[in-house]
Amino acid sequence: MVIGPQALAQKVADNNKDSLQQLEAKIDQALERSFDGKRVTLDHRKFFSEIPHYLREEFFNKYRAQGWNVKVVYDQRDGDFVDFTYSGHDLSGGYFPR
């Protein structure tokens, strides 16, 4: 039987379900720890290098659905990173931890 690309992507996602749930917990923890009311920048290599690109995009879409703007920046000089920003009003209340 021939498998289509969407069925294959679903099969791989099902096989990686536990890993993705663990990653989601790590990301949530990093967001809670680092959110300053506007943005959080995470090291792409530390969090996302182990999962395939198409699963990464599906994963980021979950956060986008919750109101985050997620942008992946590939930078040879400074290293790749992922920006999680909030497009609503500033939630920091004027306080920025340093």
Structure description:
- Helix content is 48%, strand content 17%.
- It is an alpha+beta fold and 98 residues long.
- The chain has one domain (5-86): Ribosomal Protein S8, Chain: A, domain 1 (2-Layer Sandwich).
- It has a three-stranded antiparallel sheet.
- The longest helix is centred in the N-terminal third of the chain and has 18 residues, at 17-34.
In short:
This protein has about 100 residues and is an alpha+beta fold. The chain has four helices and three strands, in the order ααβααββ.
Please supply descriptive tags for the structure shown above:
about 100 residues, alpha+beta, Ribosomal Protein S8, Chain: A, domain 1, 4 helices, about 50% helix, about 15% strand, globular
Could you give the order of the helices and strands? HHEHHEE
Low-confidence stretches: none
Strand residue percentage:
15-25%
Characterize the largest beta sheet: strand count, sense, and whether it forms a barrel. Answer: 3 strands, antiparallel
Shape: globular
- CATH class value: Alpha Beta
The counted number of beta strands is 3
Structural class of the secondary structure composition? alpha+beta
Percent range of helical residues: 40-55%
- Give the integer mean of the pLDDT values: 84
- How far is it from the N-terminal to the C-terminal residue, by CA? 57 Å
SSE topology:
Blueprint: H1 5-15, H2 17-34, E1 39-43, H3 44-48, H4 53-65, E2 68-73, E3 81-86
Antiparallel strand pairs: 1-3, 2-3
